[in-house]
Amino acid sequence: MAVPALSGVLVLVVGGCVCVAWAARGGPRWARAVAAVTLAAGELLRSSKGSGRRAGGQGDTGD
């Protein structure tokens, strides 16, 4: 059950990335809409993931 679900998510992510690249080159309106949704979802994930990790002021030192 987990493998088909993760495969579906992977297909959606790859499709979103393709639409972002296509929209950057002046693709059709629907591709620009999908790209906007993809970029907004990425920003939401980035902000929700980053806020919990940086709250204590300790980050990855890179060592």
From TrEMBL:
Domain of life where this protein originates: Bacteria
Record-given protein name: Uncharacterized protein
Organism: Streptomyces pactum
